[in-house]
Amino acid sequence: MAPRPLARVAVAGLAAVALLGSAACGSGFDDSSEGTAQSSGPASLQILIGSSGDAETKAVQDAAAKWAGESGNTATVTPAQDLTQQLGQGLAGGTPPDVFYVDAAQFADYASVGALEPYGDKISNTGDFYESLRTAFTYDGKLYCAPKDFSTLALQINTDLWTKAGLTDADIPTTWDQLTATAQKIKAKGQVPLALGDTRDRVGAFMVQNGGWLMSEDGKQPTADTPENLAALQYVKDLVTKGLAQYPKQLDAGWSGEAFGRGKAVMTIEGNWIKGALQNDFPNVKYQVVPLPAGPKGPGTLSFTQCWGIAAKSKYKEQAIKFVEAMTAGEQQMAFARAFGVMPSRQSVHDQYVSAFPADKPFIDGVEYAQGPVNAPKMDSVLRDLEAGLQALSTGDPKTILANFDKNAKAALGD
Amino acid sequence: MATEAPAARVVVRGGAPRRRGRGTRSSENLAGWLFVAPVVAILGLFLLLPILMALWVSLTDWNGQGSPFTRNVPFVGVENYTRLFAEDGLARRDLMTSLRNNIYYVGIVVPAQTILALGLALVVNNRMLKGKGFFRSAFYFPSVTSSVAISVVFLFLFANSGAVNKLLSLFGVAGPQWFADSRGVLHLLLGALGVDDPPAALTGGGPFGLSWWEWLSGPSVAMVSIITLVVWTTSGTFMLMFLAALQNVPVTLDEASTLDGAGRWQRLRYVTLPMIRPTMFLVVTLGLIGSWQVFDQVYVMSQGDPAKTTLTPAYLSYRTAFREFDYGSGAAISFVLFLIIIVLTLIQRRVMADRDPVARRRGRWRRRVPEGS
Amino acid sequence: MAVLTDRPPVAAKPARRRRARRSLVSRVLGYATLIFFGLVFLYPFVIQLGNSFKTEPDAAANPLSPIPDPLTLAGFERIFAGTNFPLWLGNSLLVTVLVTVGRVFFDSLAGYALARLRFRGRSWLFAMVVAVMAVPPVVLLIPKFLVLNQLGIYNSYSGLIVPLLADAAGVFIMKQFFESIPVSVEEAARIDGASVFRTFWSVVLPMAKPALITLTILSFQGSWNEFPHSLVAVQDPDLFTLPRGLADLVSGSLGKGSQYPLKLGAALLATIPVAIIFVVFQRYFVRDANDGSDKG
């Protein structure tokens, strides 16, 4: 394009924009820094959940309908395809759902920007929640939201394939060495021994078993680059490069549970959500759950939890709190547990849960030695970078991956 | 606001209405603006205004809460930009990784689709063949389908036990685990030559926080499958453009050169290609512009994985803003991408114009429709 | 294209025979090339069609085969029972129809004004339209989100539709076309006292049928396939269009496994409308691509 029209266009563009801009200002969403105006009376609550599948969606929808019917409100439960993104756009758009799942790993991001209503003091009997779960949702000394439930990782074994590989109960691995030995036996029979998710949420368990973790105990300092973590990653790298463990994508699966359900791997490391998923998608798979093999420094697993977040911009906070109250009642938690296999966040129903689901003992027992997620704000891209490193672990250098994490985390936590 | 426009100097092309009385002209003035008003409003509101808004956001630390246009939003100047280029950190690493990926992507997609499109056009233009219409449509069809739908099909084709690997196994080749394979193709080639460990000289350092070894990885195996998809979908459009140009090559010229005893290759090299040079330029430029914008396929097929080797600047900006809520940084990446595309277009234009005085004199291609792919 | 090596001429044979044989060889090679690439470009669709009627284990075991064994509609049943496909389809239809009508009308209005009406600022407006065409759509993702937010139409049908109601390329096409129509016809109408709009509507527009059809098809195809805009314009699943729904079906965090027959089937259904339009109006598609090199 010749220079003259270009300059003309620039002038014209600026003029047009100035005109339109002045017209556009003033409209748009309100930006009240004060609390949002509250509506009393019957509320129409929008609830956004990150569902693990149809079972969970249906269970929450049923529970919400029941609550709505009894309280005279309406409650619409929407399963998010991509919770983080939908919630992010909803918050930025000033139209967030009233109630939504908040993952412990992202909790600090939301809390630090004031997106969440800190309603912890308005919910009954908060002392009943496990302390580690309360800690996960506390920011600046305030409990922001009520823990929904929690889960831990354990080892699942496909019993049919296990027998087919000529293995017995004696082969169930309880240490890293045994894990390697058993895996080699399975591989010798031409099967894939272990389906392992290529994320920190699976690989991290090995760090815990070796006495390490990504962050210091107070969650303020990155501690990835330690000999313990290095040895743990080196061990996982060995498993992966020798073909003793395979990532889900290598097995044509979206996640390890799917690969396990299809019988593409004899073992996998997943949380208690795998129960519901297998029941739904692969009801014929026979499997047993055992604790994760202990590392050199003892047993270790990871725990995950989500809470019922309430938007600071919600117009129905009072009703939303009542809704959460109903959802976190002991009885309701047991109903959820029966429907889609999560573990109640209230200690008061612990015994009830154990007696109802004795097979879940390895999951519940995990609480004793479980490590919670990293929950500092602004860590998402850092953790993502770590995962990119883990995805390429078979060709990457564990030391570099860990050192990068520390460097990036320090930068992210610094500002 | 249009008063400064030097309307008088403009040479009106085509059949412009003749001048009439004053009244008619002023009514035409009004009608003209009324006619263009909807388009001006929509393009202004949803194209120009957003660009300015994003420019502002890229200078702030807006975290996605409330409006970005209030005093509470921290203004950080060019910090988002300096973080992308000058500071050794994750932001720069990510951007550079995505640029590296996209450079390899462009470096393969543009030549491949241009050559394939030209080849197809030459075959379809062959006067001796029948049924060309059918094949022309067949080659073009992928271009009109939805990028998302096609990505779904290619996810299936490139699955580990998918059609492509099945096909390869027919020839005794064990196909890779496409979307799980983050290894760079150049690294693999070097590995085949026995260079398994990177030479120390290349790992020590490199520009912008990536080591030379990382810069020289080549596209990852996962990226190769996206490249295949894109070449497959875009070649048809460009084939039609070449076809139109080829049909303008006078038959007599072709025949004359045949009688002169010129071989096929020579005819192509010395007769056909020079004749269709403007189209060649158009195809390469549109290819360059389009392939820096790759987004849909990455979103659907790989989301930047494995190990960030399919991360592109377009997807990175989206992810930074909408998944990490760092809208300032995301907008800044958008502008970097914007700049790359504009600069490339200008450079390309200058180079081709200097090398091709005929095209410059005719200036035909200057106002052509650039359709984003 | 095949590069043939010329054999050394054999003195005994007349040149004509030699040329005839050479043209036969090149014809065979030409057809071989056509058929090979025909397969490359069409077989993926055949695979898609075949596998959408397969069972999951069959699709995983025989991905290359186009014939389902056994044939099952389970994938399609799940599309309609297990996903929001009907809703996405409805939204896509609504968006596509409104956007197509809007683009055809607004673009031809503007195209006509830029081609025929003399008003102040016309030249720079046209230059601006050309400049706007060069703005790469993907860099507008965040900007568009911001403006929709600010205007309060984020996450609504208006946000999904209004920004797409005009496009610079369409204005450009219409302007080029109107300039090719002789002026005399309009002049006659004007002298008869018809208003500008009336002249445009009843005299000029009917003559612009070929361009209008081209623009309709382009708009239909563009808005039916539009993905990035819906990504930043809405987040409510009730407002998802087909490409958006499809993308989330594939990449979403539902963890439902690969389900290839279902996904391929959904992608197939999303492709069919454009495929039909393509087959029926082929020459207009071709014409559009050629516009790029013919006009200017």
From TrEMBL, chain A:
GO terms for biological process: maltodextrin transmembrane transport; maltose transport. It holds the Pfam family SBP_bac_8. GO terms for molecular function: maltose binding. GO terms for cellular component: ATP-binding cassette (ABC) transporter complex, substrate-binding subunit-containing. Residues 1-23 form the signal peptide. PROSITE patterns: PROKAR_LIPOPROTEIN. InterPro entries: SBP (IPR006059). Keywords: Signal, Transport. Belongs to the bacterial solute-binding protein 1 family. This is ABC transporter substrate-binding protein.
TrEMBL record, chain B:
The chain crosses the membrane at residues 30-57, 103-125, 137-159, 221-246, 275-295, 327-347. SUPFAM superfamilies: MetI-like. Residues 99-348 form the ABC transmembrane type-1 domain. InterPro entries: ABC_transporter_permease, MetI-like, MetI-like_sf. Pfam families: BPD_transp_1 (PF00528). Keywords: Cell membrane, Membrane, Transmembrane, Transmembrane helix, Transport. Its main location: membrane. It is a multi-pass membrane protein. It comes from the Bacteria. It comes from Micromonospora musae. It is found in: Cell membrane. GO terms for biological process: transmembrane transport. Belongs to the binding-protein-dependent transport system permease family. PANTHER family: ABC TRANSPORTER PERMEASE PROTEIN, INNER MEMBRANE ABC TRANSPORTER PERMEASE PROTEIN YCJO. One of its GO terms (cellular component) is plasma membrane. This is Sugar ABC transporter permease.
TrEMBL record, chain C:
It comes from the Bacteria. One of its GO terms (cellular component) is plasma membrane. Pfam families: BPD_transp_1. One of its GO terms (biological process) is transmembrane transport. The chain crosses the membrane at residues 24-46, 93-115, 124-145, 157-178, 199-220, 264-286. It is found in: Cell membrane. This is Carbohydrate ABC transporter permease. It comes from Micromonospora musae.
